[in-house]
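As described in the Methods, two query proteins were run sequentially through the folding procedure within a single session, without resetting any intermediate state between them. The first query and its resulting structure tokens are shown here.
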Amino acid sequence: MIDKAIVHMDLDCFFVAVERLRDSKLNGKPVIVGGLSDRGVVSACSYEARTFGVRSAMPMRMARQLCTDAVVLRGDYEAYSQYSSMVTDIIYESAPIVEKSSIDEFYADLTGFERFLGTWKFASELRQKIITETGLSISMALATNKTVSKVATNEVKPARQIQILQGDEKSYLAPLSVSKLPFCGSVTTQTLRNMGILTVDTLSQMPVKLLQNTFGKTGKLLWERANGIDDTPVIPYSEQKSKSKEITLEKDTIDIVFLSRLISKLAEELGYDLRESGFCTCCITLKIRYSNFDTLTRQINVAPISADHDLIHHAIELFKKLFDRRILIRLIGIRASKLVRGQQQLSLYDNSAKLASLYGAIDNIKNRYGTDSIGRAFNFDLNKRKPE
């Protein structure tokens, strides 16, 4: 049986790195990318800023107080998507099976390459090719499964690479904190610590039944990961261009309230589709078609999102800017493009984080009883119409 060879690659401080490529004066300086107002949130920060305690998802006001000399920039997500696509193309052209897990993270299955070029040599050359052709820094780990390769990449960041050989997975993970494992969020980590489980080594020796009684199905998963076991395949990457929802009205109208409700409903449906397929969107486009068949569109680039309230907000704002005629509308639609794999990163300091569990519950109800079974009361009577 051929040993599995899974490489994980992660772009270092990706947003900041792109900004530095566009402005070399930022090199060596503490840089923070995110919302510029005090109510904004840090999307990314340079390693120089991290030494002052700045972290992603931190309120911008706090970040400014911690690092008073930081250069604060509003994110240019169109540029980030372009650079991400460049890296994706390089990996996709070279590796046989590629999974893009987020805008700046990639897995590649290189199983079998050892018989030809040598897996480690190939992976190293691929990483160097990305650095040379894009100017971006990227870290990498090669192991026998996705869990070990991802954990190892995080340990060697920034700008380094490592190989964990077959049979060394468990010993490599053993001394690390349980918080280093995937699926060990803040709540799970704290629960494990309350049980006296601080390291991966201790977790790997716990009875599976005890972990299952505490964490349910996740308990067995945690035990497997702690023991370096992970059979999760690399899902072949094939970029989906966009997702959209639109409807042709039964009767042309200029009723702003009704149209706003309809946009909100379409955005809800789009958000559900995005979350169910594991995508976030970096670009939202609103389309309207007038009764004279003139069609107009307007779009905005955003941070990767899939939450209903964010999609609704941007769609309504686009509508306000786009609808500038007193002409009846016959069609309206929303498109999500520049899709990236992954879930929306929600901040503990942002109201959106409080809605994360709510969206999960709503999606579960829709999965069980149908997409029209639950929704905002403001739009609920619109469930009778069917979008195209």
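Immediately afterward, the second query was submitted; its sequence and tokens are:
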Amino acid sequence: MIDRAVTFLVPEGIDDPARVSGGNLYDRRIRDGLGGQGWRVSTVEAPDAAGATSTLRGLPGGATVLVDGLVGLWAAEGIAAAAGRLRIVVLAHMVAAAFPGATDATMAAERRMFAAADRVVVTSSWTAKELSRRGLVTSERIAVAVPGVDVAEAPGEGPKNRLDLLCVGVVAPHKGQDVLLDALARIPEQGWTCRIVGSSRPFGDFASSVARDAQRFSGRVRMTGVLHGPELAAEYRRGALLVAPSRVESSGMAIAEARGHGVPVVAAAVGGIPDTVAGGGAVLVPPGDPEALAVALGAWMTDPALRTRLRTEVRAARVGLPTWAGSVSAVARALEAS
């Protein structure tokens, strides 16, 4: 019988409210869920490659370690050195090689990390297929654990002409907030507002550029910074439409949360997003295309029948949304099989 003890190597600050991200939220839910299922989880925050490598060296032979993929990229050499001595499971939130501008060094580190892992847990079927397609991981070593959704109480019908747009996610080039602002600039002022929720810290120069660009909308676009808990839930209740203009996306946790709150979505058809919105309640547009996004947003704003249809579809889709208990169970099975 497997020893139900696991060391979870995560990025520094995953519990820091100022560093809210989909990856940090996922890690916390898995950590807490495994503990609730009888696993003894020792969480170690790795500030850098040296810290992660030191932790790996200090673990006894045969120990099970779950490594967040971001940490794994920093410490690929340390993971490779520990292969065979430790039972290594990599939790991959993304495929680094899929990002525009990924360097040769990053792609080499990613390949080294995956080659050393006994098992790889991914957060979407798209990621699993992408890893196989790129020859990074064989399919039999991959387990899929999609993010769960906290389904809110049944939403009310609400006003039919609300035009409050919401965009949730770290303010970063791969999330495409610049594409959203470019699209909004093409739409006549029709009473709409847009709130951009997310941390500006990890990609400061990009976030500053987005903030400057937002000023041209005379207060109709507001950047709230990080919100969590009741504040974030209030934004989902307030928002009439979630906009996800990502250039790269493995699954789209904000999209799933919006669907849990009964909020329709306009999103880029990229990565795992089409899988996340399966079941209806969404309009997909090509990634990085502000004109196509503007057309989709304009249709939402001017077509009451479209708004009604998408609201009806997203409410019906809430019944089959994945749960966090299912996510934790999938990760636990991967740990047991590694």
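The chain has two domains: 5-148+323-337, 164-320. We note this only descriptively and draw no conclusion about the first query from it.
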